[in-house]
Amino acid sequence: MTRLLLYVCCAPDATVAIERLRPDFDITMFFYNPNVHPREEYDRRLDAARQLGEILQVKVLEGAYDASAWFDAVKGLEQAPERGRRCEICLRERLEATARVAAAQGYGAFAAVLTVSPHKDAAMINRMGALAGEQYGVAYIPTDLKKKDGFKRSVALSREYGLYRQDYCGCEFSRKKPEQRRGKKE
To answer: What integer pLDDT is reported at residue 176 of this predicted model?
Structure first.
C-alpha cells in the first residue's frame, strides 16, 4: 500500500479525506499551518488534529509554525479578497512544503484536505499540488472532496468525534469576516 502524506489544515476537513483515501493509502497527516493566527487558534487546530489521529489511529506530523515568515510572504496583499492572490500564495506554500516533506521522508504520494471546503477552488488546488509534486518528484493525488456531500459529511464526522470546528480559514485576514458577522448580530 502506498504511503501518503496528507496535508491537513484542520481536523474537520481531514475526517472525510481520511475516510475516502484510507482504502487505497497508508496515511500520515501533515499539519503545517504558519498562516493560522493567532497562536491559540493554531494550537486548538493542532490539538483537534492530534485527537483525530488518536481516534482513527493515523500518525500526525507537525511542520514548523513560523507566522512571521507567512506574514512576510503575503505582505501587501492584506486587503486581497478570499480566493485571491494572497490565498494562492498561501496554498502554494503549504502544498510545496507537503511535497518537500513527502519526498524527503520517502512517501509515495501526497494529497490535501483543502478541497473539502466549498470556499476553496479544487481545480486550482489540484494544479498547484501537481506542480509541487513535479518540483519535488512525488506523486500528487488530486481530489475534490466536497463532491458527494463531502463537506456535509465532514460536519457530521466532526460532531461524532467531538472535534473543534473553526469558523474561519485560519489567517488573520479571513478571521475578520466571522468577527464582523458576530458584531452585526449583537
So the answer is: 65
In angstroms, the CA 82 to CA 85 distance is: 8
Instruction: Determine contact, residues 95/126, Cβ cutoff 8 Å.
Output: no
Query: Tell me: the pLDDT tens digits for 121-161?
Result: 999 999 999 999 999 999 999 999 999 999 999 999 999 99
Domain ranges of the chain: 2-185
2-185 homologous superfamily? HUPs (3.40.50.620)
Which cell is 171 given? Answer: 489567517
- Residue ranges of the alpha helices (H) in 22-84? 39-56, 67-73
Quote the CA–CA distance of 21 and 69 in Å, as a whole number: 31
**pTM of this structure:** 0.92
